Amino acid sequence: MPISQKARACAQCDRPTSHYGQLHHPNKQLQTVLTGKGQEAFIALSPAERREYETVKNAVLKAYERIPEHYRQKFRNWRKTDKQTYTDVARELVSLFNRWCVSVGANTYETLTDLLILEQFRNILPERIATYVQENKVTSAAQAAVLADEFVLTHKPSRVRSQLEYSRPDRSQPEYSRFGRRFFSEKSDVAGPVTQ
To answer: What is the mean pLDDT of residues 25-30?
Structure first.
């Protein structure tokens, strides 16, 4: 029985919602009626918490909640199907955008602005840097910019190192010493200076 049905059952039986967890569904406790993530969330609650409607409801809803990235991707990648009207698509986009905003806590003009500018900033970044910024869970473009600059500086090869890498001889061959000079002469396999 879904949570809303349990709440209605409490009201019909004149029982306060504090008895929510004690309701039985054909001689079963709520724990056995819930399945999957909902059941796991219910089991994780203490016996006292299981009797509180709001606590059980919030725990079960939290278990099924998606991470913000899920809502962002769903919103950004939403496409119209053949069976949908454009009105349906617009309505669904509004719903997905609202879920995304709620999941990241964008409830003011400033946080919404940060969210949209950060999204656009990440679209500009190269994929490796964008992934790095995303993994660090920044909340503004300014924070993302600092991380992106740090990433570039720490992953930028030094000038000396890159020059050495391009000017080095092939050291996988045994004929080169550690100084890069030919170790064996072409005429014999005896070690000695190379005469040219």
So the answer is: 49
Q: Which helix (H) or strand (E) holds 83?
A: none
- Per-residue pLDDT tens over the stretch 141-177: 999 999 999 999 998 876 655 555 544 455 555 554 4
Helices within the chain (DSSP H only):
3-12, 30-33, 36-44, 47-50, 53-64, 68-77, 86-104, 109-124, 127-135, 141-155, 159-167
Choose among 72, 99, 63, 109: nearest CA to 91. Answer: 99
Q: Check the CA dihedral 85-86-90-96 and report its sign.
A: positive
Residue 96 makes CB contacts below 8 A (sequence gap 6+) with 71, 74, 75, 78
